[in-house]
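Protein: RNA pol II transcription cofactor
Species: Didymosphaeria variabile
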Amino acid sequence: MLDHASVSPDSSGFPDHPHRGQETISYILSGKLKHEDFAGNSGILTAGSLQFMTAGRGIMHSEMSLPADDGTASEGLQLWVDLPKEKKMCEPRYRDLTSSEIQEVSADAGRVKVRVISGVSNGVQSRQDLTYTPIWYLDFTVKPGGTVKQLLPQGWNAFAYVMAGEVLISGSQHAVKQFDLVTLEEDGDGFEASVLAHYGTEARFILVAGQPLDQPVVQHGPFVMTSRAEIVQAVSDFRMRENGFERAATWTSRAMKGR
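Structure follows.
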């Protein structure tokens, strides 16, 4: 699941809520995100940075947006990545990635810029072990006349999501426009896309690829498991404050307390 959210300065964001069974990747495009959880983790993510959170057996946390310095809305992407069945009940963990830690590389005579968040692009490799489920996450900005040529692990699931402008993907007759998402064929090992010169404006899109897990996906609200019975158990554990949710019984975020 991919969520593209724009939160106005007078909005509270996403107050105290639980998760189990998945990893979330939060990418801050503008503004700031203040996070805290019942394990004592807290911090503020700024524009250009990411947080990789493994919910595992259970986490209760708060994600509250803070406006940019000029008062404009906070904007970000959150990607949910399924955990392998054997990792569903692992302990929660975090991996923060600051903007300065993300390497950028140029291609096609400077017409293409890539932020290598996770994976490999044009000879640049990202930090490792960000998620239990192997994924690639690349952020492209392409000027008119520019073409992206990107290798991908063969057999992985992959998609592209356009945040600005429009992109012509190889093999397609029509441009992919802003806020559209396209899935790619699994039998290929590469991706090619262009911003034609007559489009007149640069485009920005993310390219995400992940290793297929070949397991059922059963989702209910903030819980992602592999069977209905596991979902029922997750809901029961959260309500009873058991099996990973014990600390939820006495925890309230500072944001909810009004501090």
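Remarks: The longest strand covers residues 22-30.
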